[in-house]
Amino acid sequence: MSIADNLKKYKSEVESDGVKLIAVSKTQPIESILEAYNAGQRIFGENHVQEMVEKEAQLPKDIEWHLIGHLQTNKVKYIAPFVKLIHGVDSLKLLQEIDKQAAKNKRVIDCLLQVYIADEDTKFGLGFDEVIELLRDEAFAGLKNIRIVGLMGIATNTKNEKQITVEFNELKVFFDGIKVSFFRKEDSFKEISTGMSADYKIAVEEGSTMVRIGSSIFGKRVIKHFKNDISAN
User: Fold this and answer.
1) HAMAP family, alphabetically (predicted)?
2) Residue 205 to residues 6, 19, 202, 211, 217: CA-CA distances in angstroms?
3) Could you give the CA distance from residue 151 to residue 172 in angstroms, rounded to a whole number?
4) In terms of Cα–Cα distance, which of 189, 190, 196 is closest to 155?
């Protein structure tokens, strides 16, 4: 099947439930992203800053770029002019840098707090208690150029669907509690970003509002090593 056919399948499946489809375009060439764009896709997710910066410069300006990978503070400045949503915010320090760079660009940047829900040591994220601690911090209250619009989580890499279901459910329950406690009057706090190609159906059942699907849309990834010229800055 073509990229357009794959995209149509997933869009009809998840968007009928009001869930946003993020086409994960990391390592994909410009031509493949354009094929998805011409088939109606507007939200694309990238893991690496350098790659996203290069692609943003070459592609239509009505694309919503989501940074879904781990973000280092020293690279925020490169995406601050255009990024639509940063999914993996896992510290107050990172939020403060995003706020600083957003202010320089006269923008408010939407962010998701990444919550650690997996039974693995390799995942990033805040613990449930750390999220509450961050939201209560006076330094957080002073940030005016970021907006927390929800939570993000990555489930354990396992075929045990029961475990994945429990992890996604725990995040949804936590989201509901955070909403009541900290964001009751803010309609913008509404997003839960969970679910990828292997587990997106479970994620949607457990309340996800965004799913991140890549290879199932684009096919096998072409591995390309992007230049690291900005990583030294």
Assistant:
1) PLP_homeostasis (MF_02087)
2) 21, 11, 5, 12, 21
3) 9
4) 196
Which residues make Cβ contacts (< 8 Å) with residue 86, sequence separation at least 6? 66, 67, 71, 79, 98, 109, 110, 111, 112
Radius of gyration of the chain (CA): 17
pLDDT digit string, tens, across residues 89-134: 999 999 999 999 999 999 999 999 999 998 877 667 999 999 999 9
Q: Which residues pair with 65 in a beta bridge?
A: 44
pLDDT for position 227: 47
Partners of 89 in the beta sheet? 113
CA–CA gap between residue 203 and residue 197 (Å, rounded): 10
What is the residue-wise DSSP string for 202-226?
HHHHTT-SEEEE-HHHH-SPPP---
Provide the β-strand partners of residue 168: none
Q: Which helix (H) or strand (E) holds 99?
A: helix 92-104
pTM: 0.92
The conformation of residue 228, written as its DSSP 8-state character, comes to -
Report the DSSP pairing between strands 43-46 and 20-24. Answer: parallel
Transcribe 122-178 into DSSP letters: S---B-HHHHHHHHH-HHHHT--SEEEEEEE----S-S-HHHHHHHHHHHHHHHHHH
